[in-house]
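writing this on my phone so excuse typos. first protein, seq and then structure
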Amino acid sequence: MSRIPCACGTMFCALAFVQTPVLAQSPDASSSAPNTDGKAAFSTLVVADRPITAASSLTVREQDLRLRPIQRTSDLLRVAPGLITIQHAGGGKANQYLLRGFDADHGTDVALTLDGVPINMVSHAHGQGYADSNFVLPEIIERIEVFKGPYFAELGDFATAGAINLVSKRSLQNSFASLQGGMYNTLRGVVGAGHSFLDGRLHALVFGEGSYADGPFENPERSKRFNAFGKLTYDIAPGSSISLAITSYAGDWFASGQIPARAVENGLISRFGSLDPSEGGASFRYNVYLAYQLRNEAHDLSALVYYSRYSLKLYSNFTLFSRDPENGDGIEQADDRDLLGFRVNYRRRARLSWLGMDTSVGLSGRLDVIHNSLFAQRARERRLSVVDHDIRQSSLALYIKEELRFSRWLRLIAGLRADYFVFDVNDRQPDVTAMDMQGDATSGVRGDLLVSPKATLVVSPHRLLDLFANFGRGFHSNDARGVVRRADPVTPLTAALGYELGARTRLWDRLDLAASLWGLELDSELVWVGDEGVTEAAGATRRLGLEFEGRLRITDWLFADLDLTLNDAKFVQNAGNGSAVALAPRVTVAAGLSALLPFGLRAALRFTGIDARPATEDGFLSAEGVYLLDAFASYRYRMIELGISVENLTNSAYRSAQFATTSRLAGEAPTSAPPSAAACPAGTRAQTNDAGWFVGCEDVNFTPGTPIQVQARATLYF
């Protein structure tokens, strides 16, 4: 969370000022030049950004980002403690997000925004909440706001496990041009230019990016990406500004897909081989948004309007030859949409005798006009249309929040949020039957309203200690096609109840510690499975967890950090399998040792790990643990900076994304054969369809992690 700068003691700051409006543009200028004062960088992170409404939430500013090896947008998101991002289908697909005991797929329970503009896509062809952040350049980000749990009245759809807002810069101290390249035919060029006009009141930013990478795969990714970002900010008066931003992104790629472990173990392919070289896709997204902000001693007002144009074509083959032994099970998922919305937040601060009052109200709306479809395909040639829908999904939200400051050591925050959704679906082929997928008409209109109370109590018994108690109801929406379908419609809005106890302290002006014990109850794990064109129900779940964060300034130039999370995710109703939630992360750890020296050298050594976890509810299959060590170093002399980064320093052979999947290799038992355990090797199990015929082996399908990768970078500032 952002905070008004304060020159007083850290605890008095926490009590004297309250959080600035969430998802608002930053009024502070930022710089692309490195801060060579290590102590200042540490202070920016742990003093100015101590959260004031939840122990598990924080803001990470640009200075701390410079202490991490950030090569791509997913690296930015990993600064959120406990968040793991995984890429499993080429360089252009949205990441897989793991947070707080959720395998949130591509974003179902993690809300992502850029300057308040939503990244998650509702009723997406590939999965609900699909959050493709490839259009965000790491170089444009000034700070990252991290929120965990459903305790924040300002946050709505998908913000159950948490939410992350990426806040862009408004100015640069130096323009720059950067070129990066290295192993696996990787090349990336970035330019950024900024200038101020009208006596420093008008700030202009322009960024451009082009990149290419093959990856370590035998079927090269051939990933191409082009990005542009432009922003104009005009300071109308002190504390008042208006900004206009435009982004443009296009990318296309090939992918080696998720390969069955047995195909590697029996020598059919290597770890980096492919069974369907046509997998991959192409996507573009254009955004334009206008933001206004007014801030003074008594009032804050922020407003945002945005429009996005988006398209995706995704070619996948998860089950290989399970449904169609002759042509294969390749699918094409297509999503085309227009997205527009607005957000207005108003905040007023007042004092009645000894009682401090801080009132916030907000209104937001969103409309998605969508056409998505699913085709059977072979080598990217369409064979059959399976799903074809036109969707109009709209939502309107209103919230009110009141913060009462009874004293310097006691505050109470209460909020209420109401969300109303309308799902309007036109099924353009309601009677199709194909690929063993029975069409079910999903035309119709349905609306739903959800009211979500929120509450937080903050007790500060000492100027160095804050204690937090949080409670809140949140939700994620479900895919419109499942909501309006005639047979077994799903709940439109899946509610989540969250609660948390936490503490945060700063000791000896150099050590920041935070810990939280949290719980989250989700009414249903209902999701739309875009790969199959159907809705699946998974029941209610309960998650409990413990999180720890530590930041230490060892010397004026040397820093250490540690983030540790322990999670337990279970179904409320035990089906005789221990109630495990498949692929839910149980233990994650991120640690680093960073140096920022005054003569222009910065370096870091970082460790990331996620423990093994069940891939199936009954524990028959497991996803292996992943432990990685990365390093980077950079030296700047005047206007030139040279850097080198090494990912997977130990050259570990690991599995990146992992899923339990029923698939059939070419030559495995034919459909007409009766099922037999002998049809599948040890460690897997045979699966049958409703008629009792063999359809494949349930096995761990995985995307191999990248071996050691060395990249060099040169930057010229001007």
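second protein below, same order as before
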Amino acid sequence: MKIFITAQITDLDKYTIVNEPIEPIDLMERASMQVADWISNTINCDLRIAIFAGPGNNGGDALAVARLLKDKNFKVHVFIADLGARFSESFLINLKRLQVVDQVTTINWDSGIELPAISDYDMVVDGLFGSGLTRPLSGFPARLVKHLNNSAIPILSIDIPSGLMGEDNRANDPEAIIKATYTLTFEFPKLSFFFRENEQFTGKWEVLPIGLHPDGIASTQTQWNFSDRQTMAGILKRRAKFSHKGSFGHALLVAGSYGKMGAAVLAAKGCLRSGVGLVTVHLPRIGNQIMQTALPEAMVAADKSENTISQITLLSGYKAIGIGPGIGKSTETVSALRMLLQNYNGPLVIDADALNILSEYPEMLYLLKEDSILSPHPVEFERLAGKAENDFERLSLARKFCEKYKIILILKGAYTAVILPDGCCWFNSSGNPGMATGGSGDVLTGILTGLLAQGYTAHDSAVLGVFLHGLSGDLSLVGSSEEALMAGEIADHLGLAFSALKSESSFGKAKKKNHF
């Protein structure tokens, strides 16, 4: 799914109006019906709802939602915030339609007016401001927003929480932004929804389709994307009937040190479950028996050192290499990593301690081959590229980092961002907070290395690998909980994740349809 900035979404609305064609008021009605249906399917109609409508099209949406909910026998009261601005044409049309079925209460924009008591309501619907804001709210609008936030009543925002900007909120006033419990946005998520600092405003958000013109969407370019199931299913490779293990590549994982052999086992398990043909794990001699016992499917290349990675030889024959899980930062290991970067020209995944070594020896960053995949969590990225005050700033820093070194960066988090050398970014839609557990990243390293070894491009390996990792984590919660999730379960459920994606693909659907 593409993600567009707010100006592009406005253009797509206009494109749809001209090329469908459809009247603006009818497009608004389509969007409002989606919101009203969501509310009626989610919320008890006995609850009392206070709807706040501003003077623009967001307010027009709110008025249409009020009328539609009235038709569904909801107990709705509408407050119109007269902010001293000219009402939009669609707002006035929906106001007239609403006044046929109900009275409305107008809140004057005068800053001295007493704001309405809303303690008797069970939910507030926020339709004060849309996504076109370019500066923080102030004066009466800011006072109204604070009044609604202080009510402690659940708030549902239409399209975007009032006061929140669609992209950059670094100069915004957090006290003048609606803190929604739910946000129902139209057609595409806003870029600002993917940043940790804005979760307090968006709450749980959901995308509602409103039928924007597909030709307009297809022809509009963007650097922002959201990895949905359908797109990821399109990346999956089909296996030929006469395939053999050599068809799916040989991966090398460099992992483990004394006391951290679990990281090597988890990475190897993730790699094996990714579909790779062969896996060899280069690890300290102390780990040989552990690996052979835990994963007999994996081969072992024992290091000459008993407890650490000291030297990586025989680099030919591998389709991809992953390095980092549990390797530590000994002097010998630093030398081994440098030698690998100098002598291996194939696809490479760098994670965990290998990233920490690069942070301490930044000159080694210039040894990275183009499209190498680095997968840091926020603290590891901070060590690599410097501190950021918030996620928006961190993403900007990450894009510059990728452009400078021509690498692919997987910035792990709630919506893990895969950033490409050209600045394009894919936010991940799968995964859950239970995956914030030791070893989860090691499994991801294995998955990424396995996909690369199978011949997936670095871009596809990164985007698909992150999605499969998250989807497997989601499937691990069936009959369990986020608190109890362990990294090994993520690897164990990869088969179900692949199956879920296959069923999403046109091949999977055709196979199911024609089965007899």
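Residues 512-516 have pLDDT under 50 and may be disordered. thats all i got for now
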